[in-house]
Design goal:
Layout: H1 24-28, H2 31-35, H3 40-53, E1 62-65, H4 73-79, E2 85-89, H5 92-104, E3 113-116, E4 129-134, H6 143-154, E5 157-167, E6 179-182, E7 185-187, H7 198-207, E8 210-216, E9 225-231
Parallel strand pairs: 1-2, 1-4, 2-3, 4-5
Antiparallel strand pairs: 5-9, 6-7, 8-9
């Protein structure tokens, strides 16, 4: 039997499997690492190195959207000045797992701030962020949740902010057929894992006043593509 869901994460029932809550024992056994996609070290370091190559510096404020158990967050927290890394996620148990990962890495004193939200609300931190990252989030969201995500992220951006997202790309809009992304990953229009054309992504971003920029390949081992948004 699955453990009970939190009221917050239960909104993901029917959208994806992200409602599952982990017990303290599960977390101690490291089960959260596989749940967020595995490749813990590889993808964690990949996203960190990507943002540094794009200009992330220790004094920048960073929001990690859908931070999960801090696969990337552990790297960012170690690099940024105390208090400059913040993360949001809908799954309370994964945030607890992230706190454990910070402790294991000796980063408990870095004043990492994590917030559970089902509305992509990062305004609680009271910061306009310089950079943002969101890896393997849109791949698990339907269109309405992506629009909600973009709207929430815009609220904590300033005129020079840069926020990077990954997605599974479909070859054309309203692609109703499954798409083989390689590495055993097949994506869908109607259920997790989701795919979108670049034209669809642009439409979602522009609806809320964001300017999207396609980047494409960035070395992700499962063929997730990258794009950036700025204030339009």
């Amino acid at each position: 039997m699955d453990p009970p869901t939190s009221d917050m994460a239960s909104c993901m029932i029917g959208v994806n499997g992200y409602w599952k809550q982990f017990s303290d024992r599960d977390i101690a056994n490291g089960e959260h690492r596989g749940y967020v996609g595995g490749m813990w070290d590889e993808i964690g370091r990949l996203q960190f190195e990507w943002l540094v190559s794009e200009g992330l510096a220790p004094d920048h404020a960073l929001i990690d959207v859908g931070c999960g158990a801090l696969r990337g967050g552990v790297h960012f927290a170690g690099y940024l000045r105390s208090g400059n890394y913040c993360g949001i996620d809908v799954n309370v148990s994964l945030l607890e797992a992230g706190r454990r990962e910070l402790a294991l890495a000796g980063l408990s004193e870095k004043n990492v701030r994590l917030h559970a939200t089902d509305r992509f609300d990062a305004s609680v931190f009271g910061i306009s962020f310089d950079f943002g990252i969101s890896v393997s989030l849109l791949t698990h969201l339907n269109a309405n949740y992506i629009i909600l995500c973009f709207a929430g992220v815009k609220k904590v951006m300033h005129s020079q902010s840069r926020v990077f997202f990954t997605f599974f790309e479909a070859p054309y809009p309203a692609c109703l057929d499954p798409v083989d992304q390689g590495q055993g990953v097949v994506t869908h229009c109607t259920h997790d894992c989701y795919h979108y054309s670049w034209r669809e992504i642009c439409g979602f971003a522009e609806m809320v006043g964001l300017n999207p920029l396609y980047i494409g390949d960035w070395g992700h081992p499962r063929n997730q593509k990258m794009f950036e948004v700025r204030i339009a």
